[in-house]
Amino acid sequence: MATSERSARAGLPAFVLHRWDWSESSLIVELFVRPLGRIAVAARGAKRGNSELRAVLLPFQPIAISLTVPRRQRRTDSAEAEPREAEVQTLRGAEWLGGAPLLPPEALFSAYYLNELLLKTLARQDPHPTLFDCYAQAVAALATTALAASEQEAAVLRAFELRLLRETGVLPDLAHQTLDGQPLTAQRRYALRPEGGLVASAGDEALPASVWQALERALRDKGPNDDELHAACAAAGPALRASLRPTLQYHLANPRLRTREVWRDVQRLAAPAPGRG
After folding, report:
1. How many CB atoms are located within 10 Å of the residue 165 CB?
2. Domain 4-96, what architecture?
3. Where does CATH 1.20.1440.120 sit in the chain?
């Protein structure tokens, strides 16, 4: 017969990716947790005015969470079978860790784009501690670059896209041609293809070999931040976005990204009407 027990985890670094109503007083929250990966939790009573969770479960702010984990053991012939964790865990508590500036309004679309990438790329309960650190760095960078040149904000996004593709195992070595493993030729240009990897190309999205090599060096860097990768992405310019997008869409569970659609709608609304201005 199936048995159940309850265990606890506490002090887990996390970020809120998404949340939605579960009942009149409670929420289901998608979290990105450093040692656990993407998980869903039930935040009971979080919508009540006197709930301590109400002011803590905000996106783009570092928090530490405590979980009550229900464990269920299915009937099996093996006495050594491990209990299977329920998909939705219970949030016991959360506290704000501080130290992160609030994102200005102009950076919110970019930050929500990062969240949507994680939600549509990562499987639940698949830990990615390195990617968690990269996400925290990207959010912090967006908070400081949003008021600067838009190229800097774009570089932060491209850097995170590269980190996400590398961490999930679908980004090839950018210093070598994917099909034959040969080093890139200095005089040639290359593009990233969803199924072919890095290939020689004369298309508009192609980048010089030196740019791809600089990106690969920055990706291998184990420094405390992604400044080198941000600089390499800024040097690559808009062509890097055009080269990365097909690969991202190919590997997303759902290639339709709502943040992109909403951003395009906002840009259309903000554009001056024909004949004006």
Report:
1. 20
2. Beta Barrel (2.40)
3. 105-270
Q: What is the pLDDT along the chain (277 residues), one digit of tens a residue?
A: 333 435 567 799 999 999 999 988 999 999 999 999 999 999 999 989 888 898 899 999 999 999 986 655 333 343 333 334 457 899 999 999 987 778 888 888 899 999 999 999 999 999 999 999 999 999 999 988 754 557 789 999 999 999 999 999 999 999 999 999 999 999 999 999 998 999 999 988 899 999 999 999 999 987 778 889 999 999 999 999 999 999 998 888 665 666 655 544 444 444 454 544 4
Q: Residue 266 corresponds to which tokens in the numbers above?
A: 């906002």
Fold designation for 105-270:
de novo design (two linked rop proteins) (1.20.1440)
User: Which tokens sit at 71?
Assistant: 């464990």
Spell out the long-range contacts of 134-138 with Cβ–Cβ below 8 A and sequence spacing 24 or more: 134/160, 134/163, 134/164, 134/167, 134/226, 135/15, 135/32, 135/160, 136/15, 136/62, 137/225, 137/226, 138/114, 138/226
Please list the residue range(s) of the chain that carry CATH number 2.40.50.140: 4-96
